[in-house]
Amino acid sequence: MAARDIKSLTLKELEEVLNNLGEKSFHAQQVFSWIYQKAVADFAAMSDLPLGLRRVLKENFYIRGLKLRKRLKAGDRTQKFLLQLTDRNLLEAVIIPAEGRVTGCISTQAGCKFACCFCASGLLGFKRNLTATEMLDEVLYLKDYAPQKRLTHIVFMGTGEPFDNYDELLKAVRTINSPQGLNIGSRRMTISTCGIIPGIKKLAEENLQVELSVSLHAGDDKTRSLIMPINKKYHLKELIAACRYYIAQTNRQITFEYILIKDINSDLQNAINLSKILRSLKLCKVNVIPCNPVKELKVEPPEQEEILSFRKHLLKSGLNVTLRTPRGEDIEAACGQLRLRYEK
Ligand code: SAH
Question: How far is 203 from 191, CA to CA, in rounded Å?
Answer without folding.
Answer: 10
